[in-house]
Design goal:
Helix content of chain B: 25-40%
Helix content of chain A: 40-55%
Mean pLDDT of chain A: 89
Number of strands of chain B: 15
Strand content of chain A: 15-25%
CATH topology of the largest domain in chain B: Rossmann fold
Shape of chain B: globular
Strand order of the largest sheet of chain A: 1-2-3
Number of strands of chain A: 3
Oligomer: heterodimer
Strand content of chain B: 25-35%
Largest sheet of chain A: 3 strands, antiparallel
Number of domains of chain A: 1
CATH class of the largest domain in chain B: Alpha Beta
Order of helices and strands of chain B: EHEEEEHEHEHEHEHEHEEEEEH
Strand order of the largest sheet of chain B: 3-2-6-1-7-8-9
Mean pLDDT of chain B: 84
Number of helices of chain B: 8
Chain lengths: 85, 313
């Protein structure tokens, strides 16, 4: 009995597509992209062809950090400046 | 209907067993199953008492913050099975008394993330005892205070009044979202365990401790509705990056609906958000209380606003 991630409860497939689009604004800063995939998963890609399949938002940041090899911090001033553009 | 769980925590010698023993004498707290790590000198009679050996399990994500308590998971499942089979007396609530050095986050994580337990149990309240004579000691005590909905300052009969006042001021700085009560010999109202309600986060003064050093609480205020998808992305990323520094987040969010959304987390463990039917009054601004080490209100607010704007497509 898998439990839905708190940030994704009751959203369904359409909400995941919308969420992936929003996530790409953030992940693009690190050279990553994400697509909503089948069975409630997301596929992360980097520019060198690296990929990872993750089941929810909690796992996404672990894999995104592994692909970039650097910490991802929402308070990073460079990221915040990029998002404000 | 889910069985409510109340977590009673507090540092070594701060009087949590005394508090619990007195509370469980009350008739309105009958039919309570009690899970303890240690069988203390203060007896808890007439209740279904179970002892567990603390055992943590690291989750597959490999994050050190995201450990669960395997012992509690097993025990809570066993209680359900045995109650359903009629092998143990009926119980209507569960109280978990932690050890003095237990970190609350893995316990909360267990109750929220276990595949089975959230369908049968709801974590209603976290009560932390704080020693009125010796004050706060150790990083665990700080985590316990930050996680609490209710703080009970014990030994108020023997502590000096000025020391109690100073301690309560410190507690208000560390966790302004909690309600604080004083107790001597565990003498407090039973309502303390039965009611999960705590202080309205909108009563927390915004500028109370902006310049204090060390662990503290800051209050974020947002004047316009925030996109829920943006907030979910921001908070999951924040807790991933800074889950060790952020001890607690609690707030009411305006996500554009009729009523606010109640959000709460203890380190990485995020409670299921609750939609409230209506705002308590005309003030519909979002408020988030963030408790942690070196938390910077301006940086948090600027980042959250940037995420909200950028992810609106």
């Amino acid at each position: 009995m898998a439990k839905e991630h708190w940030a994704e409860e009751g959203g369904g497939a359409r909400a995941r597509v919308f969420r992936a689009s929003a996530l790409n604004r953030v992940l693009g800063h690190y050279g990553l992209s994400v697509h909503a995939w089948a069975a409630g998963a997301y596929v992360l890609r980097d520019r060198k062809g690296g990929t990872a399949v993750v089941s929810d938002l909690g796992a996404l940041w672990v894999e995104a950090e592994r692909l970039t090899g650097a910490p991802l911090d929402p308070l990073d001033p460079a990221l915040v400046t990029a998002l404000e553009r | 209907m889910k069985t409510p769980v109340i977590l009673v925590t507090g540092f070594l010698g701060s009087g949590k067993t005394t508090l619990l023993a007195r509370l469980l004498e009350r008739p309105e707290l009958g039919e309570t199953a009690v899970i303890v790590n240690e069988l203390g000198e203060v007896g808890i009679d007439h209740h279904l008492l179970r002892r567990v050996d603390e055992r943590t399990v690291v989750l597959s994500s490999g994050c050190v913050c995201c450990v669960q308590r395997g012992d509690l998971s097993d025990e809570l499942r066993d209680l359900l099975d045995r109650r359903d089979a009629g092998e143990i007396p009926w119980f209507r609530r569960v109280v978990i008394e932690t050890t003095g050095v237990a970190r609350p986050a893995p316990i909360v994580q267990t109750l929220l993330s276990d595949p089975l337990l959230p369908h049968h149990y709801s974590l209603d309240s976290i009560v932390a005892t704080v020693d009125g004579v010796h004050g706060l000691r150790g990083p665990e005590a700080l985590q316990q205070v930050a996680a609490a909905d209710t703080l009970v300052v014990t030994k108020s009969d023997i502590a000096a009044p000025e020391e109690l006042d100073a301690l309560e001021a410190e507690l208000a700085r560390l966790n302004p979202a909690a309600r604080t009560v004083r107790a001597s010999f565990g003498d407090v109202e039973a309502e303390l365990l039965l009611s999960g309600s705590d202080r309205d986060v909108r009563e927390v003064p915004v500028e109370s401790n902006e310049h204090a050093h060390g662990p503290k609480a800051v209050v974020l205020t947002l004047d316009r509705a925030i996109d829920w998808t943006a907030f979910g992305i921001w908070l999951t990323m924040l807790l991933h990056a800074r889950g060790g520094e952020i001890l607690r987040i609690k707030g009411l969010l305006d996500v554009g609906g009729e009523g606010p959304l109640l959000v709460s987390c203890v380190q990485h463990a995020v409670y299921p958000p609750v939609h409230l039917d209506a705002w308590p009054d005309e003030d519909h601004r979002s408020r988030l209380v963030v408790i942690g080490h070196d938390v910077d209100r301006d940086a948090l607010e600027t980042s959250l606003r940037a995420f909200d704007r950028a992810t609106r497509v």
